Recover the amino acids of this structure.
């Protein structure tokens, strides 16, 4: 079969769009396939309550080099959410309230214990092989939490500040949280700011459209892929509709939890196959709530399993009302369609809050995501994921799920998309492909 193009890119989230743009900028012919009828992947700027909202990944930061370069290049500013000083946190069966200083005083000593060895295990977080991590890769979040021997009250306080990023303490590996902290100088508070504070003015769609606008790739939406085969002379990509596309190389930029539905030939290494088959455990929910009136801005935190909404933040005003962004650690415990349930959960913190409307997207039930952002199981972060970052013959993988520094976020997606494009372009230039 003759080559249809130089490269096929599979997936049009930030990783795939970045790879397609960079390869086409090198003068390579690219066919870009996306299963959904839109670009963006697990980011999605949509409409609710009569305005644009972010249903998926949202936040970026000026400390993230790939994202920041693109924002500056396209003159896209960050949005500024409402300033918040009031914090409510559920601990020991009681809701405590105070200002940011009060909350920091309660949380900081506990996070310092939890993350005390982050820089020890990841002194050079861009190189996870710098230290033998085999011991820490056996540990779960639950194991670390138990090892601290905290009082019930202090355990709840610590649980609450971690809860946004937790679905199952017993399934999620400790190593990933330690890496996140290490990337941010060992400070958990710094990681939380970088990961969850700054939206993009105009939404994530504005940024991905800007990158997509520089691509000359042939974009085909609503085109899911069933198989990818490297025969040593080229790559054949087969769509679910039965079309076959022949290329010199391929970029696979799909969420980890969907890779088991794609036949990859030759077979990937055993640790990688095990990671793909086990999938990552994140089954969380992001729920947007429009509440009556311009209420006092607040943050709220609750331990996993002790309130359906585990974290909440007032983010914007809208037509005389207030928009609250909520995260539920267990998507099965609270639906974005359950207005009364969301209201009851928020009334744990603000008893008179009146929820008018709710909205969200079911990322767990979405066949093209099958979960939210990645949190690796023990053993995957520093053992299997690095293998997936290496070329598998002419097949290159990308995505925030397998990123190094930016694992789980938009930054990691762009980091790996750019890396895959760079490696393929070099191989094409030197005649390897």
């Amino acid at each position: 079969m003759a080559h249809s193009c130089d490269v096929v890119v599979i997936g049009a989230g930030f990783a795939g769009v970045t790879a397609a743009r960079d390869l086409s900028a090198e003068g390579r012919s690219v066919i870009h396939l996306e299963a959904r009828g839109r670009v963006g992947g697990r980011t999605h700027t949509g409409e609710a309550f009569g305005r644009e909202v972010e249903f998926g990944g949202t936040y970026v930061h000026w400390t993230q080099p790939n994202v920041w370069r693109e924002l500056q290049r396209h003159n896209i500013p960050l949005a500024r959410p409402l300033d918040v000083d009031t914090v409510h946190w559920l601990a020991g069966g009681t809701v405590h309230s105070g200002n940011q200083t009060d909350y920091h005083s309660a949380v900081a000593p506990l996070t310092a214990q939890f993350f005390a060895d982050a820089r020890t295990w990841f002194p050079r977080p861009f190189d996870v092989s710098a230290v033998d991590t085999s011991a820490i890769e056996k540990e779960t979040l639950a194991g670390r939490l138990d090892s601290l021997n905290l009082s019930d009250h202090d355990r709840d306080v610590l649980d609450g500040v971690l809860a946004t990023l937790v679905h199952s303490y017993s399934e999620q590996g400790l190593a990933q949280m330690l890496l996140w902290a290490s990337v941010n100088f060992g400070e958990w508070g710094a990681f939380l700011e970088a990961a969850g504070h700054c939206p993009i003015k105009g939404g994530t769609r504005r940024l991905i459209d800007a990158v997509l606008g520089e691509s000359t790739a042939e974009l085909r939406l609503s085109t899911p892929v069933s198989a990818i085969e490297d025969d040593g002379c080229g790559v054949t990509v087969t769509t679910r509709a039965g079309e076959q596309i022949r290329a010199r190389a391929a970029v696979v930029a799909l969420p980890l939890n969907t890779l088991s539905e794609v036949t990859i030939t030759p077979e990937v290494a055993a640790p990688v196959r095990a990671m793909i088959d086990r999938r990552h455990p994140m089954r969380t929910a992001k729920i947007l709530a429009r509440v009556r009136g311009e209420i006092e801005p607040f943050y709220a935190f609750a331990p996993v399993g002790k309130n359906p909404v585990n974290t909440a933040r007032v983010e914007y005003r809208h037509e005389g009302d207030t928009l609250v962004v909520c995260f539920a650690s267990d998507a099965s415990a609270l639906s974005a369609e359950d207005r009364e349930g969301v209201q009851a959960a928020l009334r744990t913190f603000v008893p008179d809050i009146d929820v008018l409307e709710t909205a969200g997207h079911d990322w767990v039930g979405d066949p093209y995501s099958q979960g939210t952002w990645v949190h690796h199981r023990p053993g995957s972060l520093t053992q299997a994921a690095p293998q997936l970052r290496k070329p598998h013959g002419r097949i290159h993988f990308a995505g925030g799920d397998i990123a190094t520094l930016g694992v789980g976020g938009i930054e990691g997606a762009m980091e790996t998309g750019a890396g895959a494009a760079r490696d393929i372009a070099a191989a094409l230039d030197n005649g390897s492909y």
